[in-house]
Amino acid sequence: MTGIYAENSEGIFKKAVLEAASYASQISNGQVTAVCVGTPNAGEAEKLAQYGVTKLICIDGISAFDAQVYGNEVAKVMSSNGISQVVVANTYEAKSIAPRIAVLMNASMATNVIALPDTSTGFKVKRAAFSGKGFAYVTLDRANKLIAITPNSTELKEQPVSIATETISGSGSGKTTITSTSKAAGKIPLTEAEVVVSAGRGMKGPENWGMVEELADLLGAATACSKPVSDMGWRPHGEHVGQTGITIKPNLYIAIGISGAIQHLAGVSSSKVIVAINKDPEAPFFKAADYGIVGDAFEVIPQLIQAAKAAKN
Amino acid sequence: MKILVCMSVVPDTTTKITFTDNDTKFNTQGVQFIINPYDELSLTKALEITEKSGGSVTVATVGLVDADAVIRKALAIGANDAIRINAEPKDAQFVAEQIAAIVKANGYDMVLTGRESIDYNGGQVCGLLGALLDWPSVNVCTKIDVQDGVAMFERDIDGGRQSISSSLPVVASAQKDLCEPRIPNMKGIMAARTKPLNVVEPVSSETASTYISFETPAAKQAVKIIDAQNAGQLIDILKNEAKIIA
Q: Regarding the domain with residue range B2-200, which homologous superfamily does it belong to in the CATH classification?
């Protein structure tokens, strides 16, 4: 039996969860059980059903997030429902409880999985490794398996079914207490963004980011930055993409005034299309890019903004 | 406070990644090995905590004898002692089971890991240890502090930040921004030579996974250059040629 952990983001199942559902239904025998904590909004279960989820089990009665309590409760429900392979999306939340589910189910676990398994001999998955500089093929050898998939890397394949919903009560009090939470309202989280506009030292100072943000807004993109820019405090560290920052995999990555050091490329090289804008024609980024513009950011960005506005109208 | 810092030995961040033996092994030829950058943060943070409120910092690594030079660097940065579990680090689950055995044998108030290693990028060991020890776990921390027996964290969550506190013992993983990594000084390097580096044999562990082969990303086609004087046409190309934006 195949199951997914359906992360409940304030009542919503995000695209990453739907990708997990789609992946699970493609490796299942036609029955997929999703387990979530809390109560999703009306209509959310049907979103899962679009991608092959036949049953949704909601665990009620657990107040705040605690990795230990969530992990224990979700693993218990999965085991009692005969689930032997679990698919989760590689988000921070799922990553904090997935290892716990793996231990409690005595499952083999792989994270950063980017393709459907090859089951011709054993159960072999392809995962990203070496911070974007390589891929590994690894077999999951225990009878139970847990696969954490990278958002934006597997196909969302519609497979409409009807879904049954069940609510059960959970229990357990955690040893952690959440004292405050802050979320950037209205911003697209970098790891989920399909388009990312990123800028580096070529912007000369934090005061010049207005045009980067305007271009990002027009393209429906999230903004990112290079390591030096986050180190200098021009931009929040949460925007830093690269080997020691966030690894992203958008459909389109536009790099403005970033030279393209190997550590930066490691975090973005899996993007489907890369555009590099740099005034130095020798910038290494041009070797990793699909499209390039050799020019000054302050002359190029306004032209892009104008063209993006024109394209919208 | 007794703190255990889990350390991976990884290729330097500038390494060009290649594979040998018909793409079944990582090519270590000419590669410089370093302390995993995130583990360097957890080591520094552990030292800050014990310097403030007393205690000791032990570094644990799963690795063969060639890891010793990097472990000595961790001792030079300031760890009191080190334990090397004498085995190839096969996968995250193997590593976590080895570390869990050390924690159960020696007892610690806090175990720190990195957010992930920069070679296999699993990001699993913190949560695995939490489950194996039945301890609370807090991952991707940008702040860690201990006051009056309570651990306080700030951590990254999807799309934001969260402050969280926990009783001890607890396991946590370090995210960038946690602190500035320390660089060993001459005194530290001298002292490291005589600090204890205990080698222990691994406990038995059921195989979880097997690395079969590797590949490097496919080479990119040559870049298409767009005239900077007519940069606006990029939008048209992305829309109509690459069909990547709506």
A: HUPs (3.40.50.620)
Q: Under CATH, to which class is A190-312 assigned? A: alpha beta
Beta partners for residue B198, in sequence order: B83
Instruction: Measure in Å the smallest separation between the Cα of A308 and chain B Cα atoms.
Output: 6
Residue of A nearest to B41 (CA): A244
Angle between helices B92-106 and B125-133 (to 10 degrees): 40
Give CATH for domain A2-169: 3.40.50.620
Report the distance separating Cα A192 and Cα B112, nearest Å.
28
**A 73-132 residues inside an 8 A Cβ radius of B:** 91-93, 95-100, 102-104, 106, 108-112, 124, 128-132
Strand partners, A169: A60
Domain ranges for chain B, please list them: 2-200
pLDDT band at A185 (very low <50, low <70, confident <90, very high): low
- Nearest residue of chain B to residue A284 (CA atoms): B223
Interface contact A300-B121, CB threshold 8 A: no
Q: What ipTM was assigned to the predicted interfaces of this complex?
A: 0.93
Q: Which of B14, B208, B213 sits opposite A108 (nearest CB)?
A: B208
pTM metric for this prediction: 0.89
A239-271, pLDDT tens digit by residue? 999 988 888 889 999 999 999 999 999 899 889
